[in-house]
Amino acid sequence: MEDKTQLELAIEEGERHKTPVSIKILIAILAAGLCVIGVYTFNIKQELLKSEQERTLLQENYNREKVGFLSRIKKLEAEDVSEKSD
C-alpha cells in the first residue's frame, strides 16, 4: 500500500480538499443574497432617517406655532383685561 509516489499522494490530498462546484455556487448565491439584504436594510435605514427628520421638523414647527398662539392669546387676554378695567 505504501508504494504510491509523491505525485499520487499529492493528487489524493488535493482531491480530499477540493471543494465541489455546487458548494462554490451555493456560497456565491449566499454571498449575493447577503449583499441584497444589506442594500435593502440600508435603504430602509435611509427612509427611516428621512421620516424621523421630517417628524422632528414637524414637531419643531408645531411647538413654534403653539408658543406663538399662546403668546398671542396672553396678549389678547391682557388687552381684554385692560379694556374691561377702563
What is the residue-mean pLDDT, rounded to a whole number?
90
Uncertain residue segments: none
N- and C-termini, Cα separation: 122 Å
Count of individual helical segments: 2
Number of strands: 0
How does the major sheet shape up? Answer: none
Give the helix/strand class.
Answer: mainly alpha
Form type: rod-shaped
Q: Roughly what percent helix?
A: over 70%
Percent of residues in β-strands: under 5%
Query: For this entry, what is the oligomeric state of its chains?
Result: single chain
Listing every helix as H and every strand as E from the N terminus to the C terminus, the arrangement reads HH
Write down the Rg: 37 Å
Task: List the main descriptive attributes of the protein structure presented here.
86 residues, mainly alpha, rod-shaped
Notes on the structure:
The protein is mostly helical and 86 residues long. The chain has two helices and no strands. The chain has helices at 6-17, 21-85. It is rod-shaped, with a radius of gyration of 37 Å.
Describe the structure concisely:
This protein has 86 residues and is mainly alpha-helical. The protein has helices spanning 6-17, 21-85.
Record the SSE blueprint.
Blueprint (H helix, E strand, L loop, with lengths): L5 H12 L3 H65 L1
